Amino acid sequence: MATEQNHDAQDLQQEQAAEQETAQTQAGTEQNEVSVESLQEQIAQLEGDLKLEKARTANAVYEAQKSVERIQRESEKHKDTVLEKFAKELLDSVDNLERAITAAGDDTSALSEGVVLTLKSLLTSLEKFGVVVVDTNNGFNAELHQAVGIAPDAKANEIGVVLQKGYSLNGRLLRPAMVLVGQ
């Protein structure tokens, strides 16, 4: 009987151990499931954070590119403004040299030849930077010419006398030509 009780006790212990093992396995599985679920949640959270940071980075790169483009546009505009002011100042020198040539008349002295060469050199330099004389041969154009009087011997809407040459810089008018127009 003691052997039987020992067997029964061993069987009972084995059953309890098996039940305990099953309980531990179920608890371990539940713990693994909880761990897997929490890890999946963490992965999802990290993926969301990564997408957000990628979007922020892309936005920062876009803003930086736009800033560079804006600065370049402003720089070009500033450069054009400075060039325009400088060219306008040089036009006074061109006018003075033309007046000196007109005042010299038919005199072909070394001084008058030097003034002519200086004027040519100055006009060549201005043309390199886009400053050109406004056309006065194709009739009156209110956008390019400023009529300051009437030329009695000129035809209607034609330029009779050019009092002061006009100039443009890269297609923009620097100074209109002052002209007398026919009636």
UniProtKB/TrEMBL annotation:
- UniProt xrefs under InterPro entries: GrpE, GrpE_CC, GrpE_head
Keywords carried by this UniProt record: Chaperone, Cytoplasm, Stress response
Instruction: Specify residue ranges for compositional bias: Basic and acidic residues.
Output: 1-10
Region called Disordered, residue ranges? 1-40
Q: Name one GO cellular component term.
A: cytosol
What's a BP term from Gene Ontology annotated to this protein? protein folding
In the record, what terms sit under GO molecular function? adenyl-nucleotide exchange factor activity; protein homodimerization activity; protein-folding chaperone binding; unfolded protein binding
Q: Which domain of life is it from?
A: Bacteria
Q: What subcellular locations does the record give?
A: Cytoplasm
Quaternary structure and partners: Homodimer.
**HAMAP family from the entry?**
GrpE
Q: Which family does it belong to?
A: Belongs to the GrpE family.
Function field: Participates actively in the response to hyperosmotic and heat shock by preventing the aggregation of stress-denatured proteins, in association with DnaK and GrpE. It is the nucleotide exchange factor for DnaK and may function as a thermosensor. Unfolded proteins bind initially to DnaJ; upon interaction with the DnaJ-bound protein, DnaK hydrolyzes its bound ATP, resulting in the formation of a stable complex. GrpE releases ADP from DnaK; ATP binding to DnaK triggers the release of the substrate protein, thus completing the reaction cycle.
Name the record gives this protein: Protein GrpE
Protein source organism: Acinetobacter celticus
